[in-house]
Amino acid sequence: xxxxxxxxxxxxxxxxxxxxxxxxxxxxxxxxxxxxxxxxxxxxxxxxxxxxxxxxxxxxxxxxxxxxxxxxxxxxxxxxxxxxxxxxxxxxxxxxxxxxxxxxxxxxxxxxxxxxxxxxxxxxxxxxxxxxxxxxxxxxxxxxxxxxxxxxxxxxxxxxxxxxxxxxxxxxxxxxxxxxxxxxxxxxxxxxxxxxxxxxxxxxxxxxx
Length: 209
Known about the structure:
The protein has helices spanning 21-32, 51-62, 104-108, 113-116; strands at residues 12-18, 40-44, 76-79, 92-97, 119-124, 137-144, 164-167, 172-175, 184-191. By secondary structure, it is of the alpha/beta class. Helix 1 packs across helix 2 (51-62). The longest helix has 12 residues, at 21-32.
């Protein structure tokens, strides 16, 4: 699907800072109140920046089945809406890891179109891969205060914004775990007609969370 040129320009940008993983979680839960079936959320940020924590907050706010984990070894995981949750009858959450996918065509191979209309689709590492799925999208970039060396991809080039540390004994890279004590900067951008206006975040002011 070919998107209009304005889909490449954000309608707005919102920058927030958080100090703990709990605040990241709470911010995402507040954002979930503005999400509905058909929404596409693209998460970016180095490993350990808080993408999975953010997705867990979205899941709590949407009222989907618990158990959201980093999708490192699973391309797609569907979390169904809970009939006894805070939003019964609401959308499911589809959690996608696009880190190992090299192109938009590989995204097409996992048939996200089949669940897009009934779900909120959250894609980690999705920039440059999923924009064709919808004329509107919400981009969320998470940045740690301290970024470490990026590991190499299979092609031998640094991975996109990945935090890792070298293990001299094994010659491999050990991925960093999320550090609750490090502040994060979270930047949200809205693209397309669905996100012509910034979502309400329950009174959270710009610049803090």
